[in-house]
Amino acid sequence: MLKAGTTQAEVDFFDSDFCQHQSFWKKRKVLFLTDMLFDLHNRTFARQARRVTQECPLHRILVVSVHVPRRERKLRHVFNRLSLTRYKVDFQAADMGSRGKFGNINAVISQVNLKQYDWVTVADDDVALPAHFLDTFIFLSEVMDLTISQLPHKYRSHASFTVNYLK
Fold first, then answer.
1. Whole-angstrom Cα distance, residue 72 to residue 61?
2. Residue 1, pLDDT score
3. Which of 53, 62, 72, 77 could bridge 139 with an S-S bond, Cβ 3.0-4.6 Å?
4. Three-class DSSP labels, the chain
């Protein structure tokens, strides 16, 4: 449904009837299909972007995470995936304490000389990343002149729920 006086081109995808935040949870099957289509489309784009990244300068990247008890294997897997890059990457994990996620992240970052790094990345232990993810992610962040960026969420993820959506 278009608001009076607007054209289809002026309607943002996330404000469209198809993609109402309040009803995302009702459309899980459609969102799985949407994820599959975007993943298929992005494979070709990612291959093209990876070729271009070979011409970019090398960077030093700090990857920070929180070590959650009984999930060491998951965090190790994420760190292994992020190490598949042409960049120089250092990994730091804070033990989960009473401070909360970002309190722990800040504690780790405060112990590091950030001037040594071109980028700082916060990684969760429950993400699925393709090989050479950092190459493409950092390259695109620089091309778009971003100073802060976030991993994209799947359409079916909890990030799509109204409680997590900020306009």
1. 21
2. 41
3. 53
4. CCCCCCCHHHCCHHHCCCCCHHHHHHHHHHHHHHHHHHHHHHHHHHHHHHHHHCCCCCCEEEEEEEECCCCHHHHHHHHHHHCCCCCEEEEEEEECCCCCHHHHHHHHHCCCCHHHCCEEEECCCCCCCCCCHHHHHHHHHHHCCCCCCCCCCCCCCHHHCHHHCCC
